[in-house]
Structures are given as structure tokens and as C-alpha cells.
Amino acid sequence: MSRFKRLISNYIFLRVLRAILTIFIVATLTFFIVRLMPGNPIEIYIGQLMSQYGMSFQDAKNQAAALFSIDLNAPLSKQYIIYMRNLLRGDFGVSFLSQGTPVALMISAYLPWTVFSVGISILISFTLGITLGMLSAYKRGSIFDHIMSTIAAILSAIPNYLIGILLLIIIGVQLGLIPVSAMRGTVSPGIKPGFTWIFIKDVFSHALLPIMTYVVSTVGGWMLSMKSSTLNTLGEDYVTVAKARGLPESRITFAYVGRNALLPLFTSLTMQMGFLMGGSALIESIFVYKGIGWALGASIAQRDYPVMQAVFLIITIAVIVANFIADLLYSKLDPRIKIGGE
Amino acid sequence: MAKEILNIENLFVEYSNIRGKVKAVRGVNLKLYKGENLALIGESGSGKTTLGTAIIRLLPSSGYIKDGKIVYKGNGNEYDISKFNEKDLRQFRWKEIAMVFQSALNSFNPVLKIWDQIYDTAKAHGINNRSFVRDRAVSLLRYVQLDPERVINSYPHELSGGMRQRVLIAMSLLLEPKILILDEPTTALDILTQRNIIELLRMIKADMGLSMIFISHDLSLAAELADRVAVMYAGAIVELGSVEDIFYRPRHPYTLGLIKAVPTVTAGFRELYSIPGSPPDLINLSPGCKFAPRCEYKKPGCEKEEPMLVEVGPEHLVACFRHKEIGNGR
Amino acid sequence: MGVKNILKKILIEPLVIISRDKAGLVGFIVLLFILLLSFIGPYFVKLDTEVKLDKIYQFPSREHILGTDNQGRDIFSQIVNGGKDVIIVAFLAGLISTLIAVSLGSLSAYAGGLTDTVIMFITEIILTIPQFPLLAVLAAFVRLTNPTMLAFIIGFLGWPALARAIRSQVLSIKERDYIEAARVLDLGRIHIIFSEILPNMLSYIVISLIMAMTGAVYSQVGLIILGLVPFYGHNWGLMIQLAWTRGAIFYKGSIFYILSPIIAIALFQWSAVTFTRSLEGIFNPRLRAGE
């Protein structure tokens, strides 16, 4: 097979290509939405400057141009090229409201917290979910199964941000277990970052409610998916043959049933990550957990357009990268996926 | 007098179903002798597969042994398999009796290499020595005419259907079982591969002297490989005898029907024969002979009482009230 | 396919399947109850707008079944009157999503080739973009002024997920014999799609519609809580938003005020999903209890 053909049939290569293309398209879309939508922020900003500060149109326009890092006088196509070039250099413009703070700086401060909380949540939720799911499948029809499945169904139906509010009310307000106002933010003020126990404990106590929210709202879904997948796998011939070969129950459960039942769940993993990143906008706002989701919520509320634009792009990129990692993981686990062309 | 290796005594197997109890195996008595090939022939629902899986107690969760014994005579002792607990079963399976299921297409774990699955099997029976297992695996794979190095490192999906069937057969011989049960070993394979598998099974019989039970709906398979044939219908054996008895001196209308139904390439054009009617409902069984509704030799008495197996020749048994007429008619 | 047959497929068949599944039956009844409460209830229970400062945050009593809010208004009347707007917009958005998804999904599956690749490519791109942030950003830009706009935006972003599922359904039906027969009889592509393929997918389309609705409820209430839907008079989502922005959440006595709309929304979502899941029993019999 020619080198070229082998390259384009390569699973990883195709995925990378698609990821880059999607990011490119989203960046372009973001640019055009900002510039072209009726009542676009630039016009509004110029209008504001003129009415609030009595600036002339030209002055207002120049200030807007500086803030958005664009040349309003240049033709649209040139503006686009400059925009893209800036993006590639990591220049996302400057925030409206935070006195000219570069947006890129803000993002680097907020993003890690979201990746941290969402990442841990997915790990916990997935592991817990698939364990409970397999148990339910093996104990099909038992009381355990009925109770677990019902709870899972109920939890999955409630919107995740409402679960956040519920947790906040129940644990924070009604039971008073967590000092809610003190838990705003991602770390308590004054604590030095580092690998100290104090810092780690502080970080986790702040992230506790958001993580709980993510976990509680997604574990049910994992449980039900794994239960269904396990039930399907248990009916497969090779499981019966494995028993006929006299293999011990533990080996069959993990290597024959478990591993195969897990595979279909990976497609949901990618959707799940996108959904959680999206939901972080609300969930972080509810707990005032200063991650990228909170930044999106805050920038929308304050109509801080450069931040809004950049954060949206970053959230999308984060989702694409996460999906890509999940895809890679899946290709490692399922030998039927051809990595290189054959 | 050939040595008995397996004795199925008055076995009843049922399945629980929403509609009622499915009586899949009804009072089967069958002996298997050392070194012989026995074919269990019947259509779907005859109980042949249930009987086969019951021997190693691999019935699905809705199935259970209602009554009877499955006596295995090996290692100088007699064991009743129907009384084994889980631990005994695990040690017993594959080591004494191995079962190769219909079409090995999905008999292997898709995410493990063939080597891992072979080693799994050995390890499960206490054989941990990797190089020993590897040597044995290599020689067995070579015996079934596969390239050992290539197969051992492959994943199941990388092998063709015929190859997988051979690997499964090789794996079944791994622990040197005394009995090999094969459920529809050639169904779902193309004609050429079928021939290869049949030759392979002949070779195994000649070289290893194990006893084999073939379960099939295909009478021609029995003609190729079997020493004795048991014809099953509606959960019971209706005729049992040597392969010559069955083919040259059949005494049960169902057996006759099966033989007539096999199309021949050499005979001239004639209409294809198939036994009219369909198999009975195993939940609500009618009294009397279960084949009667479809039988062209049916007499009024046939639907009142169920015929028992009677001897009509040396080691030739038939369950039919009209076996004398059928015997003379041919 | 006569009208009688279609009615039978939409109404009778699903009801038979559901009644066998206990959870599905409960879900159906709860859903019906909520719908009746939200659409017929308001004629009987008028929204209490009277401010009674001496009756703030009262406990549930015979007079006020769910208690009162921070201005002494009856919570129960707020709940009864709070579902209609949300459900209507959700239904509209779901309808739009489903229509687009069914059209594009079946076209993609049936036409195959380049059409399929292009449509699926676009679908993948839109699917990758996190839906809620996109909605929030759009809502911030566009300044929604009426429910139809809201429904349209949500509907237009919700179709990709459904389209993929519809496409695989159509693909599996496409291979069946009676389609082959219709093709041989040269009955024309559009005719085949509408007369042969889609009627057999009716239950599936109903399921998709309901799932789209639950997604639309999620998006809608989320947008309301973020304050991006300024035109609404009163609904469950607004109750939650008011409670949050006014800090009522942190006050212990407000629990009935904030819990009521949350439970109402949760019940609606749960009953819709459960009802749908039992409908799915048509397509995956192995999941049915006991088998």
C-alpha cells in the first residue's frame, strides 16, 4: 500500500485532521458571529462610548478597535486574517472590564480549575458507574438492581445544574455541613499554592460541591449504560465457551465480560465530556467556582465580549482535545480498530 | 465388550418459560463407549443441544436438570456430573469433557490474543508453566494444520471462520479430554471448509482415540463420522443403533423421513422431500407418540400411548409401535 | 397506509407496550398529570400576584398547599401557572429539531454517497461544539424578545444528535426486503421515504421528539437561570432564577419556594424520559423485564 494511502487510512491521523478542522471552523464562526450579527458587540460598544462618554464616532471606533485587537477600517477579509493570526499566537485580545487584562492570561488562570474538577469528576463517576452497572447486570431482577436502576433513572433526568442547586441547598444551607459563602472561589484567599497538605485540602474542599454535582448527575447514566452493555455481553457465545473451558468466575467477569462491555461506552464518554464542559457554565456559576465555565457566565452577564468570545473558543477546544484523548484510549483498548492502514 | 465412559440415565431437562415449563429432554438413556463416535441427530427443538450442554452442566440460567443421572466413568472412578458443585464443574470441564460449540465465529474473546486465551485455559486447570503450554499449543495448532506462530499472536477477528473453528478444536484438545462434544461443527461453514473439518475430525479420532459426540441436524455428517447414531425427536431418543443400522435398516418413521429428505446429486430429478408438519410444542405436550401428528404410518393407538424403546436387532433400539411393518416394508 | 393504521401506530401500540412496563406506566401518568396541571390548571388556579408582607415564607397549610414565597404569594398557584410557557417552547423547539433531524437524517441515510458524507460532516462539527455555551453566547448577542425566537434557536442547535440516531434507524430499515421491493417497483425516492420508511419509524420519531423536548427544557431553564431570557412573565425557571439572584437560596425558610419548581421540572423530565424508555422496548426487546 502506498505511503500516502496508508497515511490517510491511519485512524489517528484522520482524527487529528478532523480535530484541527473543527477548531478552525469554530474560530471562524466565532469571528463572523461577532462581526456580523445584528447588534454585534462592536457596534454596541461604540454606541456606548458615544452616548456615555460623548466620544466622536471616530474616537469610539478607534478605542473599540484597540480593545478588540482589530483594525475596523480594514476590509473584513483582512480583519479575519489578522484575527486568525492573533489566535495562533495566543493573543485573544483584551478584556473590556478588567482594565485591559489580556484575555489569554485570564484563561490560563481559570482553565486549569475546570479541567481539574471535571477531570476528577469523570474519573470518579465513570469508575463508580461501571462498577454499579456490572453489579446490577449480574444481579438482574434483584432488589439491588431495582433500587439502583430507579435511582439512576431519576438522577439522570434532573438537569445537572438543578442537582447543583439541590446539593447547595441541602448540604450547604439546610444541613449546614459546608460553609457555603466561604466556599466561593477555587481556593481560599491567602493560601499559597504548592504541594502542601493545607493547599490540597483547601482546593478539594472548594471543589467538593462542583465535583459532587458532576458525579451525582452523571453516575446514573454510566450505571444504566454499563448494565445494558454487560447484559448484552453476557449473552455472547464466547462467555459461554469461557465457562465451558472451566475458567474461574473472576477471570471471566473482568477479562471476558468487563472489557468487552466497556467498549461501547467510550462513544458516550466523548459526548459526556462535551456536555459537562457545557454544563460547567451554569454549575460553576452556581457555586462561584472560578473556572472557565464561571468565566463564560460572568462575561456573558457583563457583556465582556472579548472574554466571551475567547472562553467559548477555549471551551470548544478543550472538548475537542478531550474527545481526541478518549478516541485514542478507545483505539488502544479495542484491537479491532485498525491503527495503521493494512 | 467396549468400555463405558459415559452413562446418561433417565435424564429429564427442563427450561422455565413465561408460558410454562419446556420439557426439552424427556427420559433419555444413553451410553457412550470408549473411543467411539456417537451422533445425536435431530431437528431444532429435538433436545439434542440441550442434552449436549446438560452433560457439562452449561445450561442457560432458565434451564435445569429435573431428574436423572449423568455418570462419567474415568480415572478409575464413577462420578455423577449432575451432582457436581461449581468448583468440581470448573475443574471437570475441558479437562475430562470438552465442548466445541456451533460455528466458532464468536467463540473467542475479541480483545484477547489467541495465546492469552489458550494460556487462560491451561492456567485455569493449574498448568502455569508458560513454555510447556506454549509447546503444547504450537504442536496442537500444527496438528490442525495451522501456522502456529501466526495464529498464536493473532486476535480472533484476524482469522477466518474456518481457521477459528480449527483453533477451537485445537484448544479443545489442550488438556487431553476423554470426551469431545461437538455441536453442529460444520454448520455455517462453506462446503470446502466443511470437508476440511470433517477430515480433521477423522484424523483426531484415529490418532487420539477419544470418544466424540456429534450433535447435528445433518444426517450426512453422521454418515461420515459416526459409529453409532441416536435420532432424537421432541426430547426423546426415537431410534438408536449403529450407523449401518440407521442408514440401511431404519425402523422409525422419523428416521425414514430424515433419510428421504437428503437430496442426492446422483439420482435423477425428483421432488425434494421434506417431512410435513412442524415440531411439537414442548410446553404442552400431547399424549402418545410425539411424532404421530406428522407420521404417515400413524394408527389410532399411536396417539394414546407413547412408545418405549424396544430392541429390534443387536444394539438397535426403536420407539415405534409399527416398527415391524416399517422393517418389512424396506 | 390508512389514517386508521397511523393512528393505531401512534396511539394504541405505544400504550400497549407501556402498560406492560410498570415504570413506563407511572411515567406516562405523571407526565399526563403535569401536562393537565400546566395547561388546564391555570383556568382553575389563578396566579397569586398579591403581595402580602405579613405572610412571607409560610409553611404549607390548607390555605397554601406549598406555602408562600418571599412576598407572601402562594407557591402552588405559581407552580400551576409556571409550566405552560416552558413546555410550549420546549415542544416547539423539539418539533423543529425533530423535523430537521428526520429530514436530514433520512435523506442522508437514503441518498448515501456524497450527500451522506457532507451532511454527517456538518452534523459532527455542530455536535462537537458544546451546545449550552453556544446557546448562551448566541442569546447574549441576539437579545431574545419572544418565545418563538427562543424556540427557534434551541431547535436549530438541537438537531445533530437526533439526526445521527435517525440516520442509523433509516439505514437499518433501508436494507429490509419491502424497501427492496418498492425500489424494484420503481416507486420513486421521495415516495419510498415518506410512504414506506417513515411510517415504520413513527414510534421512533415520537421518542426522538420527546427526547428533544427534554433537551430543550434543559437548555431553556439554563438560559433563564443565567438571566438571558428577559421576556418571560412567570415560569418555573424564572422562579429558580429569582431565588438565586436574590439570594433566597441561602435563606433556610425559602426551601419550599425553591424546591417546588425544581421538583416540578425534575418530575417533568423524569416522566418524559421514563415514558420514552418504555417506548424503546419496541426496538430492543431484550431490555424488557423478564427476558
What's the end-to-end separation of chain B, in Å?
31 Å
Structural class from helices and strands of chain A?
A: mainly alpha
What percentage of amino acids of chain B are in beta strands? 25-35%
Shape of chain B: globular
Main β sheet profile of chain A: none
Sheet-strand content of chain A, in percent, reads under 5%
Helix and strand run of chain A: HHHHHHHHHHHHHH
Annotation field: number of helices of chain B: 11
Based on the coordinates given, report the CATH architecture of the domain at 4-96 and 210-318 in chain B.
3-Layer(aba) Sandwich
Overall mean pLDDT score of chain B?
A: 88
Terminal Cα span of chain A: 7 Å
Number of strands of chain A: 0
Secondary structure layout plus pairing:
The complex is a heterotrimer of chains A (342), B (330) and C (291).
Chain A: H1 3-8, H2 11-36, H3 41-53, H4 57-68, H5 76-88, H6 103-138, H7 143-157, H8 160-174, H9 197-234, H10 237-244, H11 249-262, H12 265-287, H13 292-301, H14 305-333
Chain B: E1 4-17, E2 20-33, E3 37-41, H1 48-55, E4 63-74, E5 77-80, H2 86-92, E6 97-100, H3 114-124, H4 130-143, H5 148-152, H6 161-172, E7 179-183, H7 191-208, E8 211-216, H8 219-225, E9 228-233, E10 236-242, H9 243-248, H10 253-261, E11 310-313, E12 316-318, H11 323-329
Parallel strand pairs in B: 3-8, 3-9, 6-7, 7-8
Antiparallel strand pairs in B: 1-2, 1-4, 4-5, 9-10, 10-12, 11-12
Chain C: H1 3-20, H2 22-39, H3 41-44, H4 75-82, H5 84-111, H6 113-128, H7 131-142, H8 147-174, H9 177-184, H10 189-200, H11 202-225, H12 236-245, H13 255-280
